[in-house]
Each structure stands twice: as structure tokens, then as C-alpha cells.
Amino acid sequence: MSTLPDFRLETYFSRWEFTARHHLTASDAQTMTVSELLALADDEDRQAWETLSLGYTETFGDPALRQAIAGTYEHVDADDVICFAGAEEGLYLAMHALLGPGDHAVVLTPNYQAAETVPLSLCEVTGVALDAEHDWAFDVDAVLAALRPNTRVVSVNFPNNPTGAVSSAEDFARLARVCDERGIRLFSDEVYRGLERDPARTLPQAADLSERALSLNVTSKALGLPGLRIGWIACRDRILRGRLERAKHYTTICNSAPSEVLARIALKAREQIVARNRALIAANLPLFDAFFAEFADLFSWCPPDGGCVAFPRYHGADGVETFCAELVEQAGVLLLPAGIFRSELTPTPADRFRIGVGRRDPEPALEAFSAWLRARR
């Protein structure tokens, strides 16, 4: 296995995620308890839960779960779905199945670190940055200009983590079409799909646009159920999907049986859960707007177009790394500074931090944050 660098986000979280008093940088929407989720189950799934045998499950994933996942797409069947232990395993194994020495990949930045470092461990990679000066605009022409004869993968993430940016449907469809024409795999991280501020901006899923494209998703983000550790890739190329199954034989082999049943319940109730989370974000955003308006001299704030994270700018002379470190140490408020998201491929703004807007009751965290800032003035 190729040597990978430390995962900066997880290293930072291992220190602070469960010790900071206020987790204000969460990337997932509000979660629920097992009893709350089971209350959404139909009779068949409740019976399946109560009589569940704790043996091995199918490597591809529980057939009923895959059917529920397929129901969230327009042109995907259950046989086009393979499940993983979260989105990270799917990303990791897909890149190993698709890339090797002599290949080239194009990756959108900023991003979740593995989207960049895993391809970099396998082949040459070109980064294409969202435009920080224009609300993180996506330049599809820049992506197309980066393509080479040996490009095998184009990796994108919308709604984007950490910026909350969303591509236009026209640009996304154009990207999928050009990738198909050139025999390139479009790898689309869609884990925040459904949490767009304007539902009209919800993008089509890559696996619906192209038989060759891969759509990555998970129960963790838009559904707010990261503890289930259930992710999946939808791809209509059955040969590639078979390669992913054989790769999974070397990692998790199969998923957790209880998690698969609970994920099935969540997927069947997806519209209800996502509507709840979207409403929660909509209710939270005025609180964040008011906070950043009070401290307009310190921050430039723009709410996310999609997802439940944003990437505001910090204007303080001490710099964002020092600012975030002192904030968590002195006030117990956890944010993620720009260095966590720095790219080896493109210049990354060094004055940003990630903040989460998808958890219930952010007022105590914002009050602690405000009090700390006022005391510094």
C-alpha cells in the first residue's frame, strides 16, 4: 500500500472533537436516536430489525438496502449499487480500482483530504480550484483544460465540503458529457445532496447522467447518521462494480448487519429526514447571519449554497490558525482552520475556517464564541 500523509482533519478531531465543549464545525446534519429512527420503520423493516441474525452479510450490501438506495436515483438499479463502510472506504477503493502508474486525474479543490491524497499516492494529479473571490464559483472550462490524453478520472464534490458551493446543472451535465466522450470516469461525491438552500439547485446524480460515472453517497451527511457507517457507490458499469467488490474483499468484506437494516429504514424515510434537516439549517442560518453581522470587522460571511458547512474568511492580524487554536483552548469552541484543507495541488486561501450550520441549538456555541470575541476587544 502506498504511504499516505497524516489525515489532518482526523488528527485534529482526535484531539478536540469529543473534548471541546462546543462542536461548531460539524460536517453532518443533526442526528437522531435509534428509537427515533425505528419509529419511521414500516412493519417489514421493524420485523427485520427485531429478528436480525448477527451473521455475515453480502459483500455488495443487503439486497433490500441496495433496492432502497436505487430508489433515490432515476436510472440506477439495485444491481448497480455496492455498499461500503462509510464514504471513505468507497472513495479509497474506487481510486485504487481506477488509477495506477502512468495515469492522470483531475481533482476539484478545496476538498475532503482523501479526495486528493489517495489519487496522488497512485498517479499524477492536477488540481482545479473553486474561485474563492467569486463565491467559490466552479469553472468547468478550467477542468476541461486540465484534461490530458491519459486522464482517467475527474473527481468533483457538490455541494462542496468545506465551501458549500454548488455547480450549475448545465456545467455539471457538460462535464459528465465530455468525460464520457473522452473515456474518463467522472467520480462525483454527492454526500450533501438534498441539503441545497434552494431545492431547485439540486444537481442530477452522476450515475443517472452517465453509465460510466460513479456517484458516491453515505448516510452520514444529509441524513445525519454517521454512526451507521454505511456508504455506497452507484455505477451502471457492472464490470467496474465487480472490481470494487473484489477490492472490498481486502478491506471490510461486508457491512454491519444492524447498520444495514437501520440504513434501509433511513433511506425509505429519506425525504422526511432530509426535509427536517433542511428546515433546521434554514432556521439556523439567521442566527449565523446575526453573529457574523455583529463581528463584520473580523469576518466575511456567506451562507452555503448547499450542505451544512461554510468556509468564512477571518480578517484578524493573528491569522486563522492561531485564532482557531486559541478559541478552542480558551472558549471551548471548535472550528477547523484553513490549514486542515490546504491543497498540494492549488493555492488554498490561508484565512478561512470551516463552520457547521446543521446541528440543533447552535446558540450556546455562538454565545460562547461571541463572549470570547467581545472579551478580546
Automatic annotation (TrEMBL):
Keywords annotated in UniProt: Aminotransferase, Transferase
Molecular functions (GO terms): pyridoxal phosphate binding; transaminase activity
Pfam family, one: Aminotran_1_2
Keyword Acyltransferase (UniProt): no
Coiled-coil stretches noted in the UniProt entry, renumbered to this chain: none
Keyword Transferase: yes
Gene3D superfamilies, A to Z: Aspartate Aminotransferase, domain 1, Type I PLP-dependent aspartate aminotransferase-like (Major domain)
Cited InterPro entries: Aminotransferase_I/II_large, PyrdxlP-dep_Trfase, PyrdxlP-dep_Trfase_major, PyrdxlP-dep_Trfase_small
Domain Aminotransferase class I/classII large: 54-357
Name used for this protein in its record: Aminotransferase
Protein's organism: Prauserella muralis
